[in-house]
Amino acid sequence: MEVIESRIDTGSDEYKANFAAMEQMVADLKAELKKAREDRSEKARKRNAELGKLTVQERLDKLLDRNTPWLEIAPLAAKGMYDGKVHGAGTRAGIGIVQGREVFVHANDPMIKGGTVYPMGVKKTLRCQTICMENNLPMIMLVDSGGAYLPLQSEIFPDVDDGGRIFYNQAIISKMNIPQLTAVMGLCTAGGAYIPAMSDHVVHVTGTGAIFLGGPPLVRAATGEEVTAEDLGGARVHCQESGVSDYFAEDDEHAIQIIRDVMSLLPRQEKATIPTRAPSEPLYDPQEIWGIVPRSISTPYDVREVIARIADGSEFLEFKAMYGPTLVCGWAYIHGYQVGILGNNGVLFSDSSLKATQFISLCDRQGIPLLFLQNINGYIIGREYERRGITKDGHKMVHAVSTATVPKFTVIIGASFGAGNYGMCGRGYSPRFLWMWPNAQIGVMGGEQAASVLISVKNDQLAREGQPPLPAELVAGIRQPIIDSALKEGNAYYSTANLWDDGIVDPARTRDVLGLAISVSLGAPLAGRNQGHGTFRM
Amino acid sequence: MFSKILVANRGEIAVRVMRTAREMGIATVAVYSEADREALHVLTADEAVLLGESDPASSYLNIDKIVQAAKDTGAQAIHPGYGFLAENPVFAKRITEEGLVFIGPPADVMANLGDKTTARTIMARSDVPIIPGMTASEADPDRLAVAAGTLGYPVLVKAAAGGGGKGMRIVWSEDELADAIAMAASEALAAFGDGSIYLEKYLDRPRHVEFQILADRYGNVVHLFERECSVQRRHQKIIEETPSPALTVDLRQRMAAAAVAAAKAAGYVNAGTVEFLLDRTGAFYFLEVNTRLQVEHPITEMTTGLDLVKHQIEIAAGEPLPFTQEQVFRRGHAIECRIYAEDPEANFMPSPGKILLFRPAEGPGIRYDHGIYRGFDVPVNYDPILGKLIVWAEDRTSACARMIRALQESVLLGVKTPVEFLLDIISSEPFRAGDIHTRFIEEHFAQWKPDTSTDDVAALGFVLNDLAGVRPALASQADIGTAEQQSPWQRLGALDLLG
Q: Of the residues B10, B292, B367, B402, which is catalytic?
């Protein structure tokens, strides 16, 4: 394959300024992530220690195999929401290795609001379950939760994607023969009681773990009966009398050991096969991406420079290099796995849309995972392009993205605006994983455009009423708030807080994150490739 | 003997000391700064202690932290390497006070020799020749003429209040003296408001020749012959060799005797170096004593077959020297080139960065002491020495040829190095003739530029190779493994992503 020849001058002022800007963004990101992991009240820490419980971090450290990677999912979910203290929406979740096997781990953090579940917590748990279902990943749940956060119960409880869906999913996951292991390390109250109940294996820690449909306060209120949590739903009750739990554990450490033992006994699963070769590092240092990404989202840059720092050996065989040049398509290897990469080098025209359609179809037929590097302002607009049927060609691309059955991965490396988000496999198009870079922006359109559209609509309305257009000083007053709000709601932190992505990643780490994710995606078999049509030359 | 020592240094010298310690069955403790987390000396040691931030004051110059590290790890002795605290008597004294052993001379000896006036006085008392000069300034031309006659021409006329070469004159004979004094005095008066003058013996293009000394606690002192370190730029040695091409058997004997006398006069213990300036007439003058292991010590090791670090440690542990002067021999010729991360085209400015490729020379008679590896980031915070390339061969001509091969064979990419500059010096006619002195580089290489005439050919060669090279169309069968076998989950190790 051809090696991408970088045209970046790492000594240039532009590079250095970009590098410094991204360095700052990554440092800010690291600080946010550290805060999400460590910002807990002294009171909560003390209480956790008094109960003899390990912290969530300690539980994860003991559960996961030593010296193996940990790919956290949505660590900044709910950032800035509620009182700003519900870090990670109250849970730690991610993919790691237990007994040599890729697993999903979902752990409540009792030091955040007693582990109670907020609306974003429900959304995060559902996302975790989706990852398990799409990738055939065993799920380990470390439960320690006071149940629904009652003041917000109406946002958690009844709808299709609310609390009930978690237990529905557990039944479906069980039916799909994906193992679910739960350690009861604290309270599992009301609906929470179904988390262990719906699992295949339940480990129960005596003294701290309790499962009940109604906790002591509710029992007292309803029947006047005075009971302790241990007496109502402790390990002895459920391991000896009710049969709700399967394994009795003396403490957290013991419970984790049992979970690891059970993991070692699970049957091995065959992984899907895709073309691979021996992995190698890129020729260019991935960290150079810091100096490549321009400081302004509107400055264009060549996505091949990014590919050169993600792909094994910086090798890339470009597909239709001279046709539809605003979309770069081609094949590469990442950590030894063959992938088809689509990256934006400008807006999408009819030809680039057709090229994408053909390329996606080829990868789908050949069983090659797809990687989308999104930096897109949208599809081309205007009289001439509408006449040539840009909508019809955009449709083909969106259709191909939607129906492709190979694993899809999306990284938003710059702008993600308008229908470009759709065609380039935004969250709505079910990529197995979607990450953002710290500089990324997302929205129906850029703030500037949105402001111009709204002002133009207003002027049209005034014209219809026979009035003069808005004076310049009024225009400025309308314009700025729209731009400000687009910036706020379009930035990566807003996106990740809302779980529109699986996390914000350091650009220099993108390659490793992708390698791990591709490996995870192969847990699920590839769909039959010899059905339907062949590939159409567009 | 010690069971564990701490090396209070970094880079190649720390690695070099640890190697000997390992051979002696002594465990080693490295100390390091934030910038050196992944440095070779940290990886080489049995244990490593983080001192603090990257600035030297918080790390390699921080006496409190280093002593604490030694205590925490149970090290019984501290080797200071060279540079940093190596010649700091306060450090040596503190170590002794804390009940530890300093691998070097006693603190008071170090303090005496560190003070130029005290050192001069000690040496003069023991008849070690020192550079003659007036002890006080003078304004009267007649008295100055008498003083000049005593010193012997040429003399250097200096402004007493001077500096920066203002008012300085070289006078080759008596009839030039009066004019020179008058001009120097008026210049000095204009520049400093003080026209007093003093005279010093002028050495015309002297050589820098030093003698390696080993002394134990029991008064035994031996020398391990000389090193010629005349090739310097900005007072920094860059090429050293032994034996010196300038010494006759007789001169060597006299200089060695003076060096041993100097060491004895100072009450010296452990390894040290007595530096001399040697003029064109064969007269030599004491310059100073370096109270530490020298950067260029390997050339002495190559020709004498002795391990200086081993003897340093043994002496520090209280053992007597295991040999006498008569049992010290040497054979062949050794040359050392210092490899710095610096840009010879930009006034030797430091050029830190990441080592992209490092393939040291190999083969007969080659030793490469270095502190780097491929992928290591050379920090900006410290002396930019990367390593020292040392060769040994049976005679000087063969040693030069071997050094040229070794320099050409070594590949070091990612940072700028003076390798081309060194090659041009060693290949030059005056160097080959052994006609070197401390102003050698200013005289012959002041306008040096690298030869770029073959760059186009190299570029063309690369393109041809690229065009003609084999391009595997398909991955070979052996390359095709299953995804499971090569999952990055198994290869990447502890990696906290999005964390």
A: B292
